[in-house]
Structures are given as structure tokens and as C-alpha cells.
Design a protein that fits this description.
Rossmann fold; 6 helices; 7 strands
């Protein structure tokens, strides 16, 4: 079985679920990497990969540019805390690009802030003068807006995940966890979509 994984905006996070039964060809993609392998070299190595040993690469490229150019088909794509940074006008194109680098049966694993949880936190928050408000405010502001240099630009809920990933009939959402804990915070939505 081909076990080729793209970890978009990976930072220091590895994919959460790793199929140990098969060797894995893993590409960690993030513009923050200082030491990295050029995409052309990764393409060459993938073409010559014997599928007998694990391979891991770090690639410093923009996700859109990489997906537009790569010739590799992935069995899994991980997108942890990145999709919310994709402008809502670009979300359909981003999902289209995911479909061009996957074959039927491939899985896209997504973790995004769950805006239903965040909205509820705002609606039920206590008086700002109470103990603990500062931490509460930091969490909400970070997850709703982030920094101006890297803003959150699309809103995600379970219903929106179904809507956008089913829109072009290229994916079906096969699992959803609406209160997923990741990196010490339990305000995330994790869902998996299968390429059809």
C-alpha cells in the first residue's frame, strides 16, 4: 500500500495517526522551515522510493504553490490549524487542489478552531472583571482573529466542514469530533474527509 503523507503547515507537529503497517513517505510542508529539501528533489526521491523504508522531508513552500505543481499523489493529507488561515474566497480552490493530489480513498485530516464552541464561549462569558478573564480573552482573541500578519480568514463548524468538502462532490466527510483537544486546548473541530 502506498503510504505517502503531506503534512500542510506542519510546523513541529507530526501527523497524529500513523499507520505503522507500511513504510511512510512524509512531506512536512511549511514556509517557516530553515533547513529543507527542494520540492524537485522530493519529487525525484518519491519517484524512486522503494516503499521499504520510512522517508521524511521538510519543504519550505507555500501550500497553494506546492499543490499546484506537485506530481505526487497522497494517501493522506494532514492540515492542522491551517485551514482557518485560508481566505473564505479561496477555500473552494484549496479543496479543489486537495482533490488534484489525492486518489479515491485518500484521507484529508483537518483540525481547525470550532467557531460554535468559540461563539458559545463569548455568549456565556463572565464579567471581564472576574478572575481568569485575561486567559479567557487571550484564548478567544487568538482563536478567532490571530495576529494581523497571519489572520484567521475562514470560519469552521461541523456543518461548514460538510458543506465545503461536499460542495464539488470530490470528498465526503467520514468522521467529526466537535470538541477535540489539541496542543492543550479543547476548542477544536477535527474532521476527516475521504476522496471519492
Amino acid at each position: 500500500m502506498e503510504n505517502t503523507v503531506l503534512n500542510i503547515a506542519a510546523g513541529k507537529f507530526e501527523p497524529l495517526d500513523y499507520n505503522m503497517d507500511y513504510p511512510r513517505f512524509l512531506i512536512n510542508l511549511d514556509t517557516m522551515y530553515y533547513s529543507c529539501t527542494p520540492a524537485a528533489v522530493i519529487e525525484y526521491d518519491h519517484h524512486n522510493w522503494t516503499k521499504t523504508i520510512d522517508k521524511k522531508y521538510y519543504c519550505n513552500e507555500d501550500a497553494f504553490g506546492f499543490m499546484e505543481k506537485t506530481q505526487i499523489f497522497f494517501s493522506e493529507i494532514c492540515i492542522y490549524r491551517f485551514l482557518e488561515h485560508v481566505s473564505f474566497t479561496q477555500v473552494p480552490y484549496f479543496i479543489y487542489l486537495l482533490s488534484t493530489i489525492t486518489k479515491p480513498g485518500a484521507i484529508v485530516d483537518v483540525i481547525v478552531p470550532n467557531y460554535r464552541i468559540l461563539a458559545n464561549m463569548i455568549l456565556t462569558e463572565d464579567d471581564p472583571n472576574t478572575l481568569g478573564f485575561e486567559g479567557h480573552n487571550i484564548l478567544l482573541t487568538t482563536e478567532l482573529l490571530n495576529e494581523p500578519s497571519c489572520p484567521h480568514a475562514s470560519i469552521w463548524t461541523a456543518d461548514r466542514a460538510h458543506y465545503f468538502f461536499k460542495l464539488e462532490k470530490r470528498f465526503q466527510v467520514i468522521s467529526i469530533d466537535e470538541s477535540f483537544e489539541f496542543d492543550g486546548r479543547n476548542i477544536y473541530l477535527r474532521f476527516q474527509a475521504e476522496r471519492i
